[in-house]
């Protein structure tokens, strides 16, 4: 649904020169970032506030966006993390009675530039073929040559270190009053629902900034470590790789999700790579090779772990694989209590098939074995 307030023109220009026309949503302005698509049918507010999307322009493949408004409890971080948004049908009107306001008001408030009225099916088909690339959205500048010049100055996601930009600035506690294990979480862009799952299982969590040294973390005397999701290229984070290596040397249990999965791999001598498109959606099928069970998962990542490196490793084994493309979705160390998954067991949004992984982590902290 489009109102008279949403008739201002906007354009989307891709790095390969492809041009798309539509109308402006959110803030009037210009924005750049890596364009990628999310196939989720719901959960747009959770997607926009996921720190893993920092620096990216999101194409929503579901047809209708904005129709249920926004609500504070759906946020995965304090503010939207995306650089821009693209959709087909946009509604500034909403039907959810509990909503705090419209998505249009929300995007304007947080300065997010967007474009609607785009044939997203054709756009996604193009990106799937060409691969993720940088793009620019503008509702104020329509000189294509000027936009091309600005777009050319936008850095590639490959090689970018972004986790420290979205990480907490100061340590903080979650689950105060809980008497369970003390878990030190390295915040590289952690989603709130991950912390809720750990808190719900009785843990006391202390969340540390991305570049915190192990010595400072250890001063809190944690029982285990958690390495969070987050944005950017894991290979551009040697500081975090070193920290994870030192954590592994302590012999304490460690669990990583998404970026944390890639960092566990790098800390174990396994390489990573930039994917053609990445996985972003709520319906990716994954098989647990240890139990033989399959699960439908929520995913958001543009980098992956090198399969050939894992297969050659003497200390790492594959635990989960993606049934669509065979990519590595989970690993565990053979020599210490550490494991990770590429997808999001906390979902938010998405299916709950993988929440058992938080129970596995708690079991590991108590001295048990994984997936037994």
UniProtKB/TrEMBL annotation:
Q: Which Pfam families match?
A: CPSase_sm_chain (PF00988), GATase (PF00117)
Q: In which pathway does it act?
A: Pyrimidine metabolism; UMP biosynthesis via de novo pathway; (S)-dihydroorotate from bicarbonate: step 1/3; Amino-acid biosynthesis; L-arginine biosynthesis; carbamoyl phosphate from bicarbonate: step 1/1
User: What is an example of a GO molecular function annotated in this UniProt entry?
Assistant: ATP binding
EC number, as in UniProt: 6.3.5.5
Going by the UniProt record, its keywords in alphabetical order are: Amino-acid biosynthesis, Arginine biosynthesis, ATP-binding, Glutamine amidotransferase, Ligase, Nucleotide-binding, Pyrimidine biosynthesis
* Reaction catalyzed: L-glutamine + H2O = L-glutamate + NH4(+); hydrogencarbonate + L-glutamine + 2 ATP + H2O = carbamoyl phosphate + L-glutamate + 2 ADP + phosphate + 2 H(+)
- Region (CPSase): which ranges? 1-181
> Which terms does the UniProt entry file under GO BP?
'de novo' pyrimidine nucleobase biosynthetic process; 'de novo' UMP biosynthetic process; glutamine metabolic process; L-arginine biosynthetic process
Residues annotated as binding L-glutamine: 52, 230, 232, 259, 262, 300, 302-303
PROSITE patterns on file: GATASE_TYPE_1 (PS51273)
Q: InterPro entries of this UniProt entry?
A: Anth_synth/Amidotransfase, CarbamoylP_synth_ssu, CarbamoylP_synth_ssu_N, CarbP_synth_ssu_N_sf, Class_I_gatase-like, CPSase_GATase1, GATASE
Q: Can you give the residue ranges of the Carbamoyl-phosphate synthase small subunit N-terminal domain? A: 8-138
Active-site residue list: 258, 344, 346
Q: How does it assemble?
A: Composed of two chains; the small (or glutamine) chain promotes the hydrolysis of glutamine to ammonia, which is used by the large (or ammonia) chain to synthesize carbamoyl phosphate. Tetramer of heterodimers (alpha,beta)4.
To which protein family does this belong? Answer: Belongs to the CarA family.
The protein's job, in short, is: Small subunit of the glutamine-dependent carbamoyl phosphate synthetase (CPSase). CPSase catalyzes the formation of carbamoyl phosphate from the ammonia moiety of glutamine, carbonate, and phosphate donated by ATP, constituting the first step of 2 biosynthetic pathways, one leading to arginine and/or urea and the other to pyrimidine nucleotides. The small subunit (glutamine amidotransferase) binds and cleaves glutamine to supply the large subunit with the substrate ammonia.
NCBIfam families assigned to the protein according to its UniProt record, in alphabetical order: CPSaseIIsmall, PRK12838.1
UniProt protein name: Carbamoyl phosphate synthase small chain
Q: Which gene encodes it?
A: carA
